[in-house]
Specification:
single chain; about 350 residues; mainly beta; Lipocalin; eight-stranded antiparallel barrel; eight-stranded antiparallel β-barrel
């Protein structure tokens, strides 16, 4: 539509280096985690930092399998593949000890395509990565690779089972040495066992947003790679959206940019996928996040695109030397001459 998770992991000696608010904290052993977890059992309102930080590492690994392989057989195997959307842990056990409910409630997993993102309430950074599934084995196996955040560069081995499209069970050997043989977590094995449920979302959300986006839009301000786009350039740009189709016209350019736009309202920020079908972006896929609003003068639409098509942006920001294009649109209305003008 335009032309244009902290590096931390469970080490081999069992110590978990922690970082709180950007500062490195003393190392903590798994025994410490288990002791404070037991305290939580007797005091449900107590969620110590040790447990919370351990969960960032453990749950990040457990959530990673939820990225979906986007191959031609994925739809036919939907019952064996975790689905896109928002997932929450309903139970978790580490080395035979149950994790506390308050800690589980602070975790949110978001899946979109082959990527996953795990956020922890109160934490500044999220964990992201990719996976590989092996459906030829029983139980099915999963190999996880964290590419950004607390487990960056680490590989975890696990097994998974889909009970239904909204229910998932996983078991991991967090040492990364071998795939578990069964869904069990004991003191001896040290495995991590968890179950998740996918949140139900209103099917009409995306349809409602798509309807609201129909119309003609003019950019009121924009930044590309940390640089402000001049106002005179913005005046040349007109975006039209109609029933899932978009067209971007730039005055003086011979060809308009046309294609399809699809919305994903199950995650936050909401996501937008743009697929160019004609013009300068033909054959390209651009990933973006968006939010809609309203001011006295009319409707607004804020979008942040990753023009590289590699990943959805995580916030509305355009850092220097990045391929992030941040733009704020305002709905336009026809002028007396029949041309669109900003409200």
């Amino acid at each position: 539509m335009t032309n244009v998770w902290r590096s931390q992991a469970i080490e081999k000696d069992g110590w978990i280096p922690l970082r709180e608010r950007g500062e490195v904290q003393p190392g903590l052993s798994l025994d410490s985690v288990k002791k404070e977890t037991e305290q939580c059992v007797h005091d449900p309102g107590f969620t110590p930092p040790i447990v919370k930080q351990a969960l960032i590492t453990l749950l990040s690994a457990a959530f990673a399998p939820l990225a979906i392989a986007t191959d031609e057989n994925a739809a036919a195997r939907s019952n064996s593949y975790p689905q896109d959307g928002v997932w929450k842990p309903v139970s978790a056990t580490l080395a035979g000890t149950k994790m506390p409910r308050p800690a589980l409630n602070s975790i949110t997993l978001r899946i979109s395509g082959m990527t996953y993102e795990v956020s922890v309430m109160g934490e500044k950074s999220s964990d992201r990565g990719v996976h590989k599934l092996d459906e030829t084995t029983r139980p099915r196996r999963i190999t996880l690779l964290s590419t950004n955040g607390p487990n960056e560069g680490k590989t975890f081995l696990g097994i998974y089972e889909m009970k239904d499209p909204n229910s998932l069970k996983v078991c991991y050997d967090l040492s990364g040495k071998a795939f578990p043989a069964a869904f069990e977590s004991t003191v001896e094995s040290g495995f991590y066992l968890a179950e998740y449920r996918r949140r139900e979302t209103r099917a009409t959300d995306a349809a409602e947003d798509a309807q609201r986006q129909n119309g003609v839009w003019k950019p009121a301000g924009a930044m590309l790679g940390g640089t402000k786009v001049p106002a005179e350039e913005l005046k040349k740009i007109t975006l039209t959206i109609k029933e899932g189709n978009y067209e971007v016209v730039i005055d003086g350019e011979p060809h308009a940019d046309k294609g399809k736009v699809s919305l994903d309202t199950s995650v936050k920020p909401k996501r937008m996928t743009i697929r160019g079908e004609d013009g300068p972006n033909k054959g390209r896929t651009i990933l973006a996040i968006y939010e809609m609003g309203q001011i006295d003068s009319g409707d607004t639409l804020r979008v942040c695109y990753d023009l590289s098509g590699k990943a959805f942006p995580t916030n509305f920001n355009s850092p220097k030397q990045s391929m992030h294009y941040l733009v704020g649109y305002r709905r336009a209305k026809p002028s007396a001459s029949g041309e669109a003008e900003t409200k």
